[in-house]
Amino acid sequence: MGTQSDIKLIEENGLRLDGRNPGDLRPIKIEAGVLNRADGSALIEWGGNKVLVSVYGPREAYPKHNQDINKAIVKARYNMAAFSVDERKRPGPDRRSIEISKVLSEALESAIMVEQFPRAQIDVFIEVLQADAGTRIAGLTAAAVAIADAGIPMRDFVTGCTAGKVNDKVVLDLSKEEDNFGQADLPIAILPKSKKIVLLQMDGDLSLEEFDTATSMIINAISRINEIQRNALSAKVKVDDAGGE
Ligand code: UDP
Q1: Ligand 1 pocket test: which of 78, 85, 87, 162 has the largest number of ligand atoms within 8 Å of its C-beta?
Q2: Which residues contact 66 (CB under 8 A, 6 or more apart)?
Q3: β-strands 169-172, 120-130: how paired?
Q4: How far is CA 15 from CA 66, 217, 224, in A?
Q5: What is the Å distance from ligand 1's center to 189 Cα?
Q6: pLDDT tens per residue across span 50-107
Q7: Which of 117, 106, 116, 89 is nearest to 143 (CA)?
Q8: Neighbour tally for 40: CB within 10 Å
């Protein structure tokens, strides 16, 4: 998040540099069941982001002292490939990826019926292949599809979107330039049926009014994104029914 608000990110005609209106999403495509060896998987392309998610489990948690006798542990690991960003990313976990892994694990846990699997572990590997702002939300949105693809019982989906502020205007789904040089970035994820917020982070400043506008834009977009998630799963079921892998 930059501090400069003088970089021009919105044209005189009100459009953003990539031609979007303030409330427009970037194109989103999700494919479920893209990997044969994982229990569940999904590939999401969201604007320039490409994120691959694979899910394993529920299986017995190891080491045993990590087991919870009341529920399954959900372990999401968010990782950026070295080639996913402009400047080569040093491989391995860093502070940012550890923090993102933690918040994504917690968000996913609230959607999964973890109490049905005591002593078990569910691993969710979120691999960012190409990053273009909004990767944590793209990864989380794909992870929900991959978990459903693994047949793990869920009480709801998890669906997310980002809004923010650029050139003093609230806009939906920040692009890379808007994320870098904008004034605020607000990723939110909710359980779409119960409308419960399961992730909310904020970088930068928003007034209460701007926050309201941003959250309404996000809630509105989330119903569209959730439809894309559900379509990805039904397309996979159709392929399975037709005898595909
Ligand atoms: N980014 C990068 N190198 C890094 C981390 C992030 O180039 O080590 C870029 C990447 O495009 C990412 C964007 O900065 O999508 C915004 O990062 P942020 O931490 O806001 O997370 P995100 O928006 O991806 O969830």
Answers
A1: 85
A2: 73, 121
A3: unpaired
A4: 51, 16, 21
A5: 17
A6: 999 999 999 999 999 999 999 999 999 999 999 999 999 999 999 999 999 999 999 9
A7: 106
A8: 24
Ligand 1 pocket (Cβ < 6 Å) reads 85-86, 89, 96, 131-136, 176, 179, 185
Beta-carbon contacts of residue 1 (< 8 Å; ≥ 6 apart): 179, 180, 182, 183, 184, 185, 203, 204
Question: Atom 8 of ligand 1 has which residue's CA nearest to it?
Answer: 89
Residue 113 has which token pair?
């019926």
Specify the pLDDT at position 245. Answer: 53
Per the prediction, the chain carries an average pLDDT of: 95
DSSP symbol at 174 = -
Instruction: Calculate how far, in angstroms, residue 132's C-alpha sits from the geometric centre of ligand 1.
Output: 7
- Report all structural domains of the chain as residue ranges with CATH numbers, in order of start: 28-244 (3.30.230.70)
pLDDT digits (tens, 9 = 90+) for 37-53: 999 999 999 999 999 99
CA of 139, closest atom in ligand 1: 25
Ligand 1: which of 94, 96, 127, 135 to mutate, most ligand atoms within 8 Å of CB?
Answer: 135
Label residue 218 exposed, middle or buried (CB < 10 Å: 0-12, 13-18, 19+). Answer: buried
Q: What is the DSSP letter of 112?
A: B
At 90, give phi and psi (nearest 5°): -65, 125
For residue 85, give the ligand 1 atom closest to its CA: 7
Largest Cα–Cα separation, the chain: 60
